[in-house]
Design goal:
Number of helices: 3
Distance between the termini: 39 Å
Number of strands: 0
Shape: elongated
Radius of gyration: 18 Å
Length: 89
């Protein structure tokens, strides 16, 4: 069952440059945290257990990677549509 947006939601437009920068940021954060020392991972876990969602480091690191991939896919799809529209002109 598809959910409907709430009445107070708004569309957000992000430029290609900003989206590319976000992908780079997400990638860097994921890579840093995935290869971080046990001390850093322990500090991250401690921080996350104090948050309302009580997530762990693995969840956060995976979420960073998945969101980077999702955004990269959206950018690639947008580029494909732009290229196809340009070919018809």
């Amino acid at each position: 069952m598809a959910s409907t947006p709430s009445s107070n939601s708004a569309d957000v437009t992000v430029t290609g440059y900003a989206a590319t920068s976000l992908v780079e940021l997400l990638d860097h954060c994921e890579q840093f945290l995935r290869t971080a020392s046990p001390v850093v991972r322990t500090e991250l876990d401690t921080f996350l257990t104090q948050q309302p969602s009580r997530s762990d480091a693995g969840w956060l690191i995976d979420l960073l990677g998945f969101n980077a991939l999702y955004l990269q896919g959206k950018l690639a799809l947008a580029d494909t549509h732009t290229d196809q529209a340009g070919d018809r002109s």
